Amino acid sequence: MTDIVPQLVDWYRREQRDLPWRRPGVTPWQILVSEFMLQQTPVARVEPVWLAWVERWPTPSATAAASPADVLRAWGKLGYPRRAKRLHECATVIATEHDDVVPSDVDTLLSLPGVGQYTARAVACFAYGRRVPVVDTNVRRVVARVVHGRADAAPSASARDLADVEALLPDDETAPEFSIALMELGAVVCTARSPRCGLCPLSTCAWRSLGFPASTGPAKRVQRYAGTDRQVRGRLLDVLRASDSPVTKAELDVVWLTDTAQRDRALDSLLVDGLVEQTDDGRFALAGEG
Ligand code: SF4
Q1: Which residues form the HhH-GPD domain (predicted)?
Q2: Which of 1, 149, 159, 184 lies 20 to 30 Å (CA to CA) from residue 52?
Q3: 197 φ, ψ to 5°?
Q4: pLDDT (tens digit, 9 = 90+) per residue, 228-247?
Q5: How far is ligand 1, taken at its centre, from the CA of residue 99, in Å?
């Protein structure tokens, strides 16, 4: 297993994708923004939104000074818009309580709104070069295959995942690069459905050595979008984002006529999440514009 570090780091130096948040001069705040956006959204959709975002709001204080509605508009179609609200709150806390500087240690990062175990470790590692295990879905899958000889990771994350990756981390200055390389391998080579073992830089992989035994876990549910409350919420937000002034319930109602109870539930959830508010005369607007 000791060869895994140079093999993976050399491969990463040769093959890494040119992603804007990995370029020189990108600040810890801008890396944190990318991690918020990438949590549940593919790279190709994040890229243009991230570029526009960091140009418009390059610092936490600049983001904090923006209105919640402008933040929701800039979030655009990335989905899961609660992340935008949490990012705005996170910017406000960093601006007011941390002198506009993103903290560098995992525990302080974990105290910020919207920052969980993965994001805290990713920022500590990628922005500050800290030697901390960074574990996302891709990393869990690669470790399951390379170390444990299993097709897939366990259904849910556990402390064991961190310990597994910690055990692989080198003790020298290549640790952060190794962490990002492990994630990159899972994203582009050791993918969930069709690992491209012919392109893999690793000479040792337990799953390959065992002849690729099939997964023994439950079949994964395919996430659908069409017809879900998420889709309805997205359509309602589209109307509000496009309008400079509050809109009537009737203007919202037309976006989803097939299931009016579902539509009202989606609108209620946007109100509860604080992404939308209702004016005194009963119309609806993005947060802060009511
Ligand atoms: S050999 Fe195949 S399964 Fe093993 S790490 Fe490489 S790509 Fe993944």
Answers
A1: 37-188
A2: 184
A3: -60, -25
A4: 999 999 999 999 999 989 99
A5: 44
- The CA distance from 40 to 83, in Å, is 10
Half-sphere exposure of 284 (CA within 13 A, CB side): 21
The CB density around residue 191, as the number of other CB atoms within 10 Å, is 14
Distance CA 256, CA 121 (A): 40
CA distance 286 to 241: 7
pLDDT in tens, 55-71: 999 999 999 999 999 99
* The two three-digit tokens of residue 96, written as one number: 């007011």
In the numeric block, which tokens belong to residue 194? 């069709």
* The total number of residues written for the chain in this structure: 290
Position 283: which residue type? R
Residue 200 Cα to ligand 1 midpoint, Å, equals: 6
Place of tokens 């804007």: 20
**pTM listed for this prediction:** 0.89
| Chain-centre distance for alpha carbon 118 | 9
195 lines ligand 1 (CB under 6 A): yes
